[in-house]
Amino acid sequence: MSLVESLISKFEMKLMKQISLFFLPLLMMLGGTALAEETILERESSAGLTHEERVWLRSHPHIRLSPDPDFLPLEHIDESGKYTGIAADYIALLEKKLDIDFKILKYKNWDEVIEKAKARESDMWGAATPTPQRLEYMLFTKPFIELPAVVIVRKNIEKTLSLKELKGLKVAVISGYGIHDHLSMNHPDIELDVVPDISAGLKKVSFGMVDAMIANIALASYYIEKDGITNLRVVGESGYVYKWGFASRNDWPELNQILQKGIDLIDESEKIEINRKWVGLKPSPSLTFKDIAIPFISVLGLFAVASIIISNRVLKKQVLKRTIDLQKELTERKRVENLLTRNNRLLDGYNKILEMLTAGHSFQKVLDGLVFLVEQQSEETICSILLLDETGQKLLTGSAPHLPEIYNEAINGMNIGAKAGSCGTAAFTGKRVIAKDISSDPLWEDYKKIALSFDLKACWSSPIRNSKGKVVGTFATYYKTICEPSKEELELMNSASHIAGIAIEHHGYEEEILNAKNDAEAGNRAKTEFLSRMSHELRTPLNAILGFSQLLTLDTDQPLSTVQRDNTERILNAGHHLLTLVNDVLDLSRIETGALEFKIEDFSLQGALDETMMLVRSLAEKKGIKIKARPLKEETLLVLADRARLVQVMLNLLTNAIKYNKEAGTVDLSWEAIDDKKVQIRIKDTGMGIPKEMIEDIFEPFTRLDRDKIKVEGVGIGLSITKQLLDTMNGTISAESTLGEGSCFTVELPLAKT
Q1: How far apart are the first and last CA of the chain?
Q2: Which pTM was predicted?
């Protein structure tokens, strides 16, 4: 069946329903049933209520009812403000049977109805389903109508769907309705799109903004027909059944009991009549054609046939117009989808180009990758990237893998200018140049011959700029047909030029960094060579001075006087200090340049520390400092390090602990293994301490504490050398200090594997 035939069939069914609605009330009037029903209602008024319930009603003469303003066929506030629908008809019966006065409150949507009930500004709802959330503040009668919640999708989805198949899909539900609460609590894996009303949800499904909608079948059917939506279908039930009853505030349990008794008074024929009025019509078994005037049927039949014929023609025009509109909509949607797909693919490609930059790929490979990416967007596109030379006057080939080699050679080194083809002109003016026909474009006068010889008929070129806005090259696209760019193609050129600018600027930074690195390495080599020569030039006379001074002190044939001996001692001390300084500076230089050799091996920690203690013992005795050396645990520890460099480190730390200690102070040297992977050595003194704000700076070269107040020789590079030596041996050093009490330096080194 075609779409037109389907719509016509639906129209005919609708028309027949309208005809039935026209004469069924007439038949009921002929039967005289209305008078009988009125008599029954009067007889049942206030029936079944207890004395206490009647008293309660008299003390609450007006019950405030807030219906859903847009919930046909259940309930609705029409344009004139009248309350209509299934629930409204039930309320009308309760008013007659129970003699209750209901005051209808009108709110703009269901969410506001809920809020007013919570605030006790409304006493009851006309039709609602119980949920755990609503039961916190409302009581519910038994349902007076039950309808399933169904899954509604576009007609292009043919398979049956249940809640299980909706996992991961976007599903519309009406805000605050029972199915909204049910899905939120029991099916969190379904992505809900909460809409304010049924009409909004159905339109979202129709336009493809959501995958499906779940709503009760009566409400959905009514609004699909009302809004003229033709591309939706029901594909399954959700398993959730709407059971609508009256809801009343839970602090008035009497009202809930009264409402339930009122529902119980409504007989089956009254319920059938209400349902037939709003949900569907069934022929009355009490009526026959003998009771109906045959002329009326004939006239109505002729009228129906005439109406169908006329309506068919109108409907065909409407369907044709709607079909054309849908085709346009689908075409535009397809175009947008294709554009989004291309843009997403392009964005992924740009990200990969930028990743290549950060990963250190060659500049040529990055440019080629960008050209390949843009060429993939269209089979007819041939791209090139040209780079401005250092003079800013010539263009050099950066990447043009699919242009003829002879053509690339011809334009490589071309001068930029006001009439230098697309690329030369774009680089000169800083503006995009579009040559849709090279053969007739005046900018190509000097280059069109070679371009046309390779069947290149159009060329669009965009200037490439760096982050400062300076032109650094051009990005061009060639075509073998006469053409001009679309809006999307211009946007593609702009984005590709931007990425090219980033790549070119990054390449420039790399060259600057490489040059700076080479300069730094050359400076380090010069510094190392200078220090090496200076070390040799200084050590030779120093060794002579120290040697002759020692000979003077050892001469027994011509012994020195006391004054001469003191002066000679000063010469020896100054010479040793200067020699230590030269050695330290040379070590620091070698460490920084990586020229200092290390021999990493396993050795006994105890032996290295014993050697260090022997070297500092005389200095400690001279200063009156007592050294305590002890392992925290009795164990043999092997460390993985350079033994000579570890002795140098410990000698430096112990020497500092002695020199900066107070008179008759102590130095505590202790060590132990921790976590079976490293050893911890602690040197603790009772000296002056280090201010907290200077702890972080003490390992920087040429840093000394209060050098003007403390009369201790040194230039402040010992701790810097110590830290760098430990870093090279995979060790660490840290310091803690309390001003006026002393300091503690902690060294950690890896244990040897046993």
Answers
A1: 87
A2: 0.35
